[in-house]
Amino acid sequence: MKFELKVLQGAQVSWVSLDATDRQAALHQAQAKGYGVLQVRSARARGWPQWPLKTQTFNLSLFSQELLTLLESGLSLIEAIEGLAEKEQQDHARAVLTQLRTALFEGLPLSQALALQPSVFSQLYIALIRASERTGDMVHALRRHVAYQSQVEAIRKKIIAASIYPVLLIVVGGLVVLFLLGYVVPRFSTIYESGGDNLPWASQMLLRWGQLLQGHGEWVLLGTLGMAATLWLLFSRPASKAWIMQRVWQIPSLGEALRIYQLARFYRTLGMLLQGGIPLLTALGMVQSLLPQELQLALQRVMTEVREGKALSGAMESHGLTTSIANRMLRVGERSGKLDDMLGRIGVFYDEETARRVEWLSKLLEPALMVIIGLIVGLVVVLMYMPIFELAGAIE
C-alpha cells in the first residue's frame, strides 16, 4: 500500500511516497531514512479504482523457504532479508521485507521485527522464531516450519483437486437448467397458451413460469439478483457461518471427517511448537485458535487439568480431543519423553486418513451429481414436451 509523507529534510519540506503495510510502518521507514515526518496520508489511487474485495497477501511459506535456502547457503540474516527485498516484485511484499530489514538494522532480533507486523506474521510463527533464537537453531526451526507447511499444503491441494470436477458439474448443470428455464421455456409457453387447463399440472406450472419471464423478465432478474445479494450478505456474517458449521458438524460421517481434519492440524502444529522448545501450556494456548469454538472450550478445560498436574493424554481423552489411536500414541510419547515427535506422527496418520476420505467422497459424489443433474434436465425437458405427448394421444 502506498503512503504519502510530508517530511522535513534539512530546511526543506517535501512530499515522498513509500510502500508500507500500514501508517506506522510508513512512519518507521521514513524515520529510518532520516526524515522528520510532519504528516502521513494514504496515497490517492489514480486511474481505475481497485476492486474493494481485492487484498494483497504475503506468502509466508515462500518467504520461509527462500530464507531457509539463503541461510543454509551461508548468508547472514540481514544479507538474506536484503536479498529477498531487492528481488521482490510485488509492492506489498517488498514493503514487508523492507520493514523487516530496517528493524534488523536497528538491532532488533528477527522475532521482534516480525512482531512489528502482526497482520502479516502470525503469533505461532513469531513464537517459533523466538524459541529458535534462544536455542540458536533458526535454520532447524525454519526447516520444521517449511516441512509443516508442505504437508498442510499437500492435504489442501488434494481437497481442492477432488472438488474441481464436482464444482464443474454443478456449474455446467446449473447453466443448462438456467438456459432451459430462462430461454427455452418462455418460447414454449407462447405455443401452448391455448392449451388451458387440459395440460398436466406440472406442465402448467412450468409454462406459467415461462409466461412470467416473457412478460416481466427484467423484474424477475432484479428480484433474483436482490435475493442472491441478500443471501450473500446473510451468510457472510460470522454468526451465520458459525451456525452453518454447527449444522455441518452434526452430519454423522462428514462431521467426524471435519473433526479428524481439525485435530490432525492441531496435533501437527502443537508438535512443531514443542520441537521448537516452547512449553506445553504456552503451546496449547497458541494453537487454541486453530480449533472450532466447541473444541476451543474443551481445550481450555484440558489446559486447566494439565496445569493441575494431569497427564495430557488423560485430559484430552476426557474432553473429546483425541481418538482411541491418538490417545494410545500420546501415552507412548509421554512414557518415552518424545511427545513432540509423537504429536507429529499423529498428524501424519490422520492426514493420510483425511486424504483417503476425500478420495472416497469424490468418487461417490461425482456420479451422484451427474445423476441428479441429468434428472433435473430430463424433468424440465419432459414437462415441456408433455403437451405434445397429450396432443399425440388425443389425435390417436
Q: How would you sum up this structure, described in words?
A:
By secondary structure, the chain is mainly alpha-helical. It folds into 3 domains: 2-42, Roll (Ubiquitin-like (UB roll)), CATH 3.10.20; 60-150, Type II secretion system (T2SS), domain F (Receptor-associated Protein); 163-396, Receptor-associated Protein (Up-down Bundle). The chain is built from 15 helices and 3 strands. Strands 2-1-3 form a 3-stranded antiparallel sheet. The radius of gyration is 30 Å and the shape is extended.
Return residue spans where pLDDT drops below 50 for at least 5 consecutive residues. Answer: 45-55
| Biggest beta sheet summary | 3 strands, antiparallel
Assign the CATH superfamily of the largest domain: Type II secretion system (T2SS), domain F
Q: Radius of gyration in whole Å, from Cα?
A: 30 Å
Overall pLDDT level: 77
- Work out the helix count: 15
CATH class of the largest domain: Mainly Alpha
| Proportion of residues in helical segments | over 70%
Number of domains: 3
* 3D shape: extended
Biggest sheet: strand arrangement: 2-1-3
Query: Which structural class fits the helix and strand makeup?
Result: mainly alpha
How far is the first residue's CA from the last residue's CA? 76 Å
By CATH, the architecture of the largest domain is named Up-down Bundle
What name does CATH use for the topology of the largest domain? Receptor-associated Protein
SS elements, strand count: 3
- Determine the strand fraction and express it as a percent band: 5-15%
Task: Please name the defining characteristics of this protein.
396 residues; mainly alpha; Ubiquitin-like (UB roll); Receptor-associated Protein; 3-stranded antiparallel sheet; 6% strand
